[in-house]
Write the structure tokens for this entry.
Amino acid sequence: MSGETISATEAERIGLINRVFPVEGFAQHVDAFLSKFTAQSKVVLELTKRAVDTGLYRPCMEAISRAEDLYMNEMMKTEDAGEGLKAFLEKRTPMWKNR
């Protein structure tokens, strides 16, 4: 907000960005980083993002209550939530349907 230019290393250090990758092999590093997310259920990731966004700038207990409501009343009704629980109990990789 000061208008100062900062390095990528400094941006990572202060939490402005998640990771810094070298130019050489950049695409491969990005793909590996993103694979942690793309392997997950799209619908559950969207609901998780909504839960985080809903809680921003709210008192802690209100944010927790809103996130809990979202998870219990929306996320747990998705097919992928059921698949995730079933896969966990069966000790296997989930087969996401993004529904």
